[in-house]
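Exam revision sheet. Question 4 asks you to relate a sequence to its structure. Input first:
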Amino acid sequence: MSQPALAHEREAFRDPELPLDVRLDDLLGRLTRAEKVALMHQHQPEIPRLGIAACHTGREALHGVAWLGPATVFPQAVGLASTWNPELVRRVGSAVGDEVRGFHRRDPAAGLNVWAPVVNLLRDPRWGRNEEGYSEDPLLTGALATAYAGGLRGDHPFYLKTAPTLKHFLAYNSEADRSTVSVSVRPRVLWEYELPAFQAPLAAGAATGVMPSYNLVNGRPAHLSPCLEEVVRPWSREDLLVVSDAYAPSNVAGEQRYYASHPEAHAALVAAGVDSFTDRGTDPSFTIGSLEAALDGGLLAEADVDRAVRRILSIRFRLGEFDPPGRNPYACIGEAVIDAPEHRSLAREMRQAATSRSSWLAWGDPW
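Answer key, structure tokens:
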């Protein structure tokens, strides 16, 4: 039983003393094309011959850990913003990140890539999801998103407590026909209003990923926006993971009818910068089939797949997956943090801060 483990210790990608680029090169070189394509689905399979475990991309953690069982529930994002207190919001993000780690300790299948915070600006009260965002102001939204994502991420220079993903890029404020509606965004609105809220947490190194939105922007699916590669990625000093929203890859050649076939659409998605495909639930066959067809048809090069998989694996390395637990300061977080008394106390503190501050704003400046 000890032989496979000893073999893995000799593999360069498992040597934490080596630079990350060297480790990524080594691991990519060991993967077959089929294995790399399979890693591009949200539910990444295990690779037993390399001792690599299955991995799940995507965990809801907007104001507490969702869908995994009882956990501490903090005020909704708009309530967090009512405190106007980035440090308090950062503490909430840190507590939520701890609980994500706690659930991961309980069940390693509970992933550490989290889909939060939402940085869409609250432009219209008719959206119906305004409780998920912080405010209508890009400066305040950027500051609070940086705080919350920073708490989720942790403060280690290399290792991540969790991997926060900003939602939803871009101009997402409509639920009616959300996969087919096209939002008109003028250049000034784009650069002075929409983009700054995303830029702040990425430039600060707080967020590690972005999720495009369902809608189209100026007639182009947001998942195919040239801004992903040309604008958003350069804001981050580290590899940025771009994950699709659920079933969005199917929409490009489906409801949106932007391409005639799914292989064409998937090739365009990879070229636009989408790394991880969230589609068809736990069944990866549609994603794998579309990407393989794109490769076989010359629509996609294996180098394009390598680029996407490298970004996926980069996050997994920084989450400490391939290193001894003792090197990762967050690996020691256990189940005891889930709905811990100190987290409940923090939730009450946040509620009181949001209520008192909101009341003050409602009355205006008494001076």
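Marking note for examiners. The chain has one domain: 33-357.
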